[in-house]
């Protein structure tokens, strides 16, 4: 899912991202619509970004057909007025993936409007949780049930404002979205930033996030990063000592690096087993956060590299920019993290943390509402005239029946 303020390049990103995929065939919208497709902002005919959802609070379903999905990612670029789910079945190495790209309308307007727009996004994410919850409650679960969850929300940050970093509105939105989804910060239109500006901006965003307790998805935990750093410097020291001879062993011991590394907690046993190359990749990805991306040229403009090969890029009077060149921007790294190296980790966090948290909150809320309903019933019974309390009147219920929060009738056995 992409989210953020209007005009930052979210749709352009989705289109460029699509250009990097190997689509097998397009999954028809009907397949997804039965289980999860939902339009965040109401009916497609309603063009207002602040239009309400259906009365029951669940966003109405709007299926996207195969044709629509392709048209969306290849047609003319227009402002996103309604959210859009594009579904693709892709080949990623040896894996076959059902990938859903969710575009959302950009935030615009007063704080109140932005907050209600954020509500819509949250409701959408929670709606996907509800679908999983409903599936889990079934006696016979559907073995072919589609993975509905939003595993990553790429949050686009504006870099045109004079104040570097996150705006107050970004902070408010990020704090809320971060309770429900893996957040990955993105700086779009990277071609408009120099290397120094980009570096400064990244630092400012991370500082603002840390100061405001906003947690982005960690490609590598700080503990593991520290461990890796110590390991590296230890390796370097060892190399230096072997070059200089045995006399310098003591110096290495004095540094205490080896011990320090071993003293680190043992609760990262799984991480210890990771292949060093994977650790390197994790560390590199973490160093890129927030990811700077550049979208390809729009309106069918063909861009060729110096060898005449057509590429996803942008052409300037001074040269050609390749969106997938890691020297130009972080798009290729982000793509590989989302679809390959961190795909599983993102999914595990979604189910193991965000979904579980939502499920617990929901169950607790249900229990509480049942308790309140029960207390109210008891109070009503106590206030009833004496002859009704003794069972001689119309009250024939021996045990209280409670209407649960879901509307289901539950008995005292449920307490
Ligand atoms: N120079 C440059 N322009 C870009 C880039 N990405 C997008 N744009 C331009 O920025 C404008 C807005 O892009 P969109 O992709 O529509 O932005 P959006 O965030 O989806 O906007 P909303 O639909 O309002 O939410 C378009 O004119 C794009 O061509 C980029 O990497 N570099």
From TrEMBL:
The keyword Transmembrane does not apply. Keywords: GTP-binding, Nucleotide-binding. It comes from the Eukaryota. GO terms for molecular function: GTP binding. One of its GO terms (cellular component) is septin cytoskeleton. It holds the Pfam family Septin. Residues 38-65, 235-275, 366-400 are annotated as: Disordered. PANTHER family: SEPTIN (PTHR18884). The keyword Nucleotide-binding applies. Residues 260-275 have a biased composition (Acidic residues). Residues 370-384 have a biased composition (Low complexity). InterPro entries: G_SEPTIN_dom, P-loop_NTPase, Septin. Residues 1-365 form the Septin-type G domain. Gene3D superfamilies: P-loop containing nucleotide triphosphate hydrolases (3.40.50.300). Coiled coil: none annotated. This is Septin-type G domain-containing protein. Belongs to the TRAFAC class TrmE-Era-EngA-EngB-Septin-like GTPase superfamily. Septin GTPase family.
């Amino acid at each position: 899912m992409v989210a953020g303020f209007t005009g930052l390049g979210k749709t352009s990103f989705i289109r460029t991202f699509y250009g990097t995929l190997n689509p097998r065939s397009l999954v028809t919208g009907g397949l997804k619509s039965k289980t999860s497709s939902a339009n965040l902002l109401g009916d497609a005919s309603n063009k207002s970004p602040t239009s309400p959802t259906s009365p029951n609070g669940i966003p109405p379903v709007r299926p996207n057909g195969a044709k629509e999905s392709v048209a969306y990612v290849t047609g003319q670029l227009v402002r996103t007025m309604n959210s859009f789910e594009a579904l693709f079945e892709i080949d990623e190495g040896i894996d076959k993936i059902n990938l859903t790209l969710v575009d959302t309308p950009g935030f615009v307007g007063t704080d109140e409007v932005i907050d209600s727009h954020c509500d819509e996004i949250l409701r959408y994410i929670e709606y996907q949780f509800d679908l999983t919850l409903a599936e889990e409650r079934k006696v016979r679960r559907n073995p072919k049930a589609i993975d509905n969850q939003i595993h990553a929300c790429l949050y686009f940050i504006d870099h045109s404002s004079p104040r570097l970093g996150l705006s107050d509105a970004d902070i408010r939105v990020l704090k809320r979205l971060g309770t429900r989804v893996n957040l990955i910060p993105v700086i779009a239109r990277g071609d408009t930033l120099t290397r120094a500006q980009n570096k400064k901006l990244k630092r400012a965003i991370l500082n603002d996030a840390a100061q405001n307790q906003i947690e982005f998805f960690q490609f590598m935990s700080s503990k593991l990063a520290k461990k890796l750093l110590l390991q590296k410097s230890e390796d370097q020291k060892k190399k230096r000592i072997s070059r200089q001879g045995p006399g310098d062993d003591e110096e290495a011991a004095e540094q205490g690096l080896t011990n320090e590394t071993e003293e680190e907690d043992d609760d990262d046993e799984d991480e210890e087993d990771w292949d060093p190359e994977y650790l390197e990749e994790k560390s590199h990805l973490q160093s890129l956060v927030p990811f700077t991306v550049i979208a390809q040229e729009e309106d069918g403009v063909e861009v060729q590299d110096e060898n005449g090969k057509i590429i996803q890029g942008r052409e300037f009077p001074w040269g050609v920019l390749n969106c997938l060149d890691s020297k130009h921007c972080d798009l290729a790294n982000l793509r590989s993290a989302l679809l390959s190296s961190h795909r599983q980790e993102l999914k595990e966090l979604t189910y193991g943390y965000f979904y579980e948290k939502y499920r617990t909150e929901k169950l607790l809320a249900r229990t509480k509402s049942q308790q309140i309903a029960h207390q109210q019933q008891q109070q009503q019974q106590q206030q009833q005239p004496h002859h009704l309390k003794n069972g001689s009147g119309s009250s024939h219920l021996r045990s209280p029946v409670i209407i649960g929060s879901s509307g289901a009738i539950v008995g005292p056995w449920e307490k």
